[in-house]
Every structure is written in structure tokens, then in C-alpha cells.
Amino acid sequence: MLPQILAAFQCEDAALPVELLLGGRGEQVPALRDGRADIALLPAPFDDRDLDVEPLVTEPRLLALAADDPLAARSCLRLADLAGRSLPDGTPADWDGRPPTTARTHNGRQQPQTALRGRVAGTQPVSLDLAQIFNLVGLGSIIWFLPASVVSRHRRFGIVYRTVSDLPPSTLALAWPQDSRSPAVAAFVRAATAVAKSVQTDAQADAETPQRAMM
Questions:
Q1: Cα–Cα distance list, 136 to 40, 77, 122, 158, 162 (Å)
Q2: CA distance 108 to 54
Q3: Which pLDDT score, from 0 to 100, does residue 88 have?
Q4: Are 57 and 171 in contact (CB under 8 A)?
Q5: Is the pLDDT of residue 27 over 70?
Q6: pLDDT tens digit string along 81-96?
Q7: How confident is the model at residue 208 (pLDDT cuts 50, 70, 90)?
Q8: What are phi and psi of 105, to 5 degrees?
Q9: How far is CA 166 from the centre of its chain?
Q10: Is the pLDDT of residue 76 over 90?
Q11: What angle, rounded to 10 degrees, do the helices at 2-10 and 183-208 form?
């Protein structure tokens, strides 16, 4: 949605030129707190202390894994089935994709990370781009949780997608410092929420449209 949000923002009276800063998971919130960024578009959950947050879109997530992975033979999985697997950031997959600081605990103690079950040895990079992540998934080194809309745009040979019944959905949100009084930030929030509402309305309409097929 970012191109649409930026276009809508430029139509706002309080719009200013936008400088885009790209950051991986865990990098956006520190940028807000130290002043490098005025507003961030990021996936929830995250540490929202001292931040205002506006959820934009919530959608299901799917599991991406190598086509020859034994788990690929199953049409539906549970998080417990992913024990021993790692996500691109090194988080244990059965922690449902949350950062280790918010992961589930047992008897008041944080669960230790289990051994990587992937078939490619070596320490995973901390920051990976989209192509690198897909390559590692295809090699069986990691698995990945993707929003359904991303899955529809990135079908890859050697990678399959499966449902994880107890995997929480993905929420894309805006966040900005609570003490911000910037008219431009307020305008960006208005533009983003309007675009998100439009996108969800269009998606719902498409889902309800009868499909015609020639016989």
C-alpha cells in the first residue's frame, strides 16, 4: 500500500517531502525514539511504549517452506509442529513469529531456543532482503510466515505455502511518538487509514464477486 499512501499524502494540505528509511524488524521503533524517523509502517506486535499506534490492515498469515520439506506433505499444521525450526530473524518458529522478548514462557521462564532443524548449516544473517529469505526457505534452511497478500504476489518454484491453524494473523500498523505535534504526521495517518480502508473494501468486494467459468 505504500505507493498509494504516499500519493494520497501528497494531496494533503500539510504534506511535506518524504524521505523513506528502510529497516528490518526491530529497527523501526528505535528510529522513532531517537528521532531518525517521524512515523513508521511496521508489523505488529512491537514495543509501543510512548508511541501512538493506528492499525491499518489485518490478514491471515501462511507458512512458507521448501517443497521437499516433510511438513509440506501436510495440508494444515500447528505451531507445535514447527518446534526446532527458525524464522529469518532467528526466532523459534513455534513462538508464532513474536520477538523473543515477548515469546511464550513456561513456569515464568523464557523458553530456550531449540536447535535449528534446517538442512543448511551455518548462522543465519540478522538482516535479509526478500530474495535472500526466499532462497533460504527454498534450501530448507529456514521457514517463514507471510501475510496472505504477500503470498499471492510471490509464488516461487520450490516453495509451498501451508496453513498453520493457531498462527495469529498479521497486522500492519502505523506508529509515531506520542509527543509528536506534527501536522504532516497527522496528515500521513489520515492518508494511510483512508487507503487501508479502500484496499480492504476492494478486497471484500472481490471475495464476494461470483466467479464465472467457461465450460
A1: 27, 21, 11, 11, 17
A2: 31
A3: 87
A4: yes
A5: yes
A6: 999 999 988 889 988 6
A7: low
A8: -120, 165
A9: 16
A10: no
A11: 130
